[in-house]
Amino acid sequence: MQIKLLPFGQTKEILPSAINLPEQVKDTNGLSQYLVDTYPQLTRVHFAIAVNEELASSNTTIFENAVVAILPPYSGG
Amino acid sequence: MIQAENNYKNIFYEGPIDPGFIALIIRKHQKQREIGAHSLFLGQVRADKIADQVVAAIEFSSYEHLALKIMSQIREEIIQKFGLSCLHVYHSTGRVAAAEICLFVFAASAHRNAAVNACSETVEEVKNKLPIWGKEWTDCNYFRWKKQNNPTSESGLLMATE
């Protein structure tokens, strides 16, 4: 499955912007696990996920062409 | 799909916030006769010491559209909760040097307490809920990703590779 990945902050230095997910990845929990396994540098970064501009507060299904943002802890202000 | 939602009020200001701009915003409210109190918060980049280096600038980036969407919800809630006449928020994007202003919050209401409390609560919300990231650059061109309430004991500086 092809999704658009929007990594922010320090995750932008680790992740690509488009990614082809293996079949078994269908939701945000699966995606987190896949990203951490594929990009081990992510292990030391806490991050939240937003799917199509909605924060995923619980496990959320990801569909083809979804825009999935990777959000490390905010530090504005 | 998200076209219709593109009218969120912009809060992003390219580079450091000019004190003249702040004066201009104050001036704009000089015709509103129902206002009795303004409360302003200005966040300024502090030259924190990290190990033997000093923060020279913070480079801000954001998930702009999501930030505007969340800010618009926060704004509505706070205006309603405190009965404000208006609430303005400006946050820098890009590089802001130490001793320059990167956040400007302006709350106006009929009475003092509402303005002061609304301003303070808005600053908290901006810091906690908006998808904005600061990258701290030192005078030696090392960097680290800013954390809220960063312990000064922890350095974690990295050398720039770009």
Provide the helix percentage of chain B. Answer: 25-40%
Approximate strand percentage of chain B: 35-45%
**CA-CA gap between termini of chain A:** 37 Å
Instruction: Specify Rg of chain A, calculated over alpha carbons.
Output: 12 Å
Averaged pLDDT of chain B: 92
Order of helical and strand elements of chain B: EHEEEHEEHEEE
Mean pLDDT of chain A: 95
Give me the secondary-structure category of chain B: alpha+beta
* Largest sheet report of chain A: 5 strands, mixed
Describe the protein in words.
The complex is a heterodimer of chains A (77) and B (162). Chain A has 77 residues and is α+β, with helices and mostly antiparallel strands. Chain A contains one helix and five strands, in the order ββαβββ. A five-stranded mixed sheet of chain A has the order 2-1-5-3-4, with no helix packed on it. The longest helix of chain A has 11 residues, at 28-38. With 162 residues, chain B is of the alpha+beta class. Helix content of chain B is 29%, strand content 35%. Chain B contains three helices and nine strands. Chain B has helices at residues 19-28, 64-82, 112-129, and strands at residues 12-14, 37-44, 49-50, 53-62, 86-97, 101-109, 132-138, 142-145, 158-159. In chain B, strands 1, 2, 3, 4, 5, 6, 7, 8 and 9 form a nine-stranded mixed sheet that branches. In chain B, helix 2 (64-82) runs antiparallel to helix 3. Chain B is elongated and about 55 Å long. The N and C termini of chain B lie far apart (36 Å). The mean pLDDT of chain B is 92. Classes of the chains: A alpha+beta (77), B alpha+beta (162). The interface between A and B is medium-sized, with 15 and 27 residues.
